[in-house]
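Dear support,

I submitted the protein below through the web form. The confirmation email said the job was done, but the results page showed an empty box. After a refresh the structure appeared. I'm attaching both so you can tell me whether what I see now is the final result or a partial one.
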Amino acid sequence: MVYRNWLNLNLHLLWCHNRYVVEGSRSTSEILQFTEYTNSAAWLVHEGWAQVEHEGHCHTAHPGQWLIVRPGDRVQTFSRETRMLSIAFEARWPDGSHLFQEGLSLVIDAHKVPALEKKVQPILQTVMNIAPGTWDLRDHKADLRCFLNLESLLCEWLLELAEILDAHGIQHAGHFGIDERVRHAVDLLHTRDLAAPLAVEQLAAQVHISPNHLTRLFRKDLQVTPNQFWDRLRIEHARSRLRQPDIRIKEVAIDLGFKHLSHFSKWFKRHTGGCPQVARDGAQGQKS
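What the results page shows now:
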């Protein structure tokens, strides 16, 4: 794999925190369950337990254990008293596939991989400095120095994680042979206003090919059409925004250019199978 291929990897930190899953509720034995998270993540359990289920497999971590979570659709379950160190990130290729996925989830005893916790501590401290009391740092102000520092720290931590996963027979995925015009189109889509409708003809003109040719290339390289890729970006934005505390569904609808809340709800349900209200309410109180 050449360096050019790695330029297709979309890598960034989402959040990092060390606290109870639900603050102020340590005395009850009620369990908590969530299904709306699809990002890559790693949890170091300090108290209670954490569990993920996906594709018929169940993985549970207890105090003193890391749970390296498989990205994608899953069920996350926690005891009410769970306290853990959580780092969440995205590491994905343009077609939506993840850098680390096959072979996960994985439970590892923390004392066997001390560097994994050691290298996450600078990330945690930096996040606490720029976004105290919150779980998601994407909407918090950060200057260039802070951003580059976090990216550097995340890469150092991921190098450690990659070595650990490799020792367990888990290899990273690579994405080869994406047409330069597709990559250019993807870059353009990532910079577009999410509220604006997509005109495939205009996008194709920007990369100097016909709309039909662009659609064929998208299907070949990314297994989706340009419109489907655009909807994926918009759904990811909606899901991300709906996880934020005190967010109003109407605000998310406006972000995406919907004039009527009912139209947004129908669109969201068509693409996710659930309604925005459930996605928002399910995210409140637990950010992992």
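Response: this is the final, complete result; the empty box was a page-load delay. The chain has a mean pLDDT of 89.
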